Amino acid sequence: MEITRVETFALERELDERFANAQKWRDSRSYCLVRVTTADGTTGWGECWGPIAGNREIVEEIVAPWLVGRDVRDVERIHDDLREKLRMGFHTCDPSGVVSAVDTALWDALGKARGESVARLLGARRRDDVRAYATGGFFRDVDGFEEQCDLITDEARAHVDAGFDALKMKVGFARFFPWGPDEDVELVRRVRDAVGDDVTLFVDANWAYDVATAERVGRALADADVRFFEEPVPPQQLDAYERLTASLDVPVAGGECWAYADEFGRVLDRGAVDYVQPDVTSAGGPTSMRRIAAAAADAGVQTHPHVFGTGVALAASLQVLATVPGTPLLEFDRTPNPIRDELVTDPVTNDGDTVAVPDGPGLGVTVDEDVLAEFSR
Ligand code: CA
Fold this sequence. Notes:
Layout: E1 3-20, E2 25-38, E3 43-48, H1 52-67, H2 75-90, H3 96-114, H4 118-121, E4 129-135, E5 139-140, H5 145-161, E6 166-170, H6 181-195, E7 200-204, H7 211-223, E8 226-230, H8 238-247, E9 252-254, H9 260-269, E10 275-276, H10 285-298, E11 302-303, H11 311-323, E12 329-333, H12 338-342, E13 350-351, E14 354-356, H13 369-375
This protein binds calcium ion.
């Protein structure tokens, strides 16, 4: 199964309406995808986390010439060799999104060649469907606090009406709005009132706080029966995570900005979070996701993968989710995103609070070449 070609595809689509989390406004959604082709014409798809610039050049100029001629069946060995090669070149700026996309593409190609899903190849398809929570509640581009709250509570109710019994919302107004942690907490209370006590609520701060503010907000979130407090502080501040996890009643979650089993191992060894959230497009692809989820399970920590990409990332995440020990939840991004919804010919949809795991070969989805061309820039 010799690899004969490695290509990148830069996709972008402007959004009709921009939205923000605590750190950035999003005016568009853009992605760098990777396609690997073997000598017999089998293809596999993967997706890089992060900007197109950088990911695309590294894949085309460094990875492609190195990868052509290698054997897809060596997927785990290639994962480790590629990580080592990029670490030598980029030191701590190791582009884990590139490793992730290549690893995902190789698993997809191997599955297609063997007629088996990636979850089957990983040897642990533990479930046919996964519980999903709706991710939304991003900040809108409006000036009034009441209007902001109304838009977000209306959206939360719409997710419940669509069948979800678990939701994740954002906090951290201060960077872009004239409101602070008190308004963050007020927003959570209003969403809790709007959806009722039976809906599971998660809150994501996207590193909005210092540790003292996170302590104060976290205590209020526990009062609102929030079930995890995601990324309260910046990902490099493991001392702060450890302190918050020890002191707060609300469970602390994090991991979308961490990569590979060794980095997650350091987090787990310190007991720095209650839940880990690796992303298949940035943590090192299915190879690393399996290792991270296994290490977390050994430490008694549930893995709830982070998902915020195209139909390729969503499909890869579902394959991984099928294999994760325990009771993992799918993060089901409900923000408007035509690239997520239209790129694959058999898009992933929810049936109430449940999403089925495809069992077709590879990632179990097919990229629509016409749609690919339409979104390519
Ligand atoms: Ca997040």
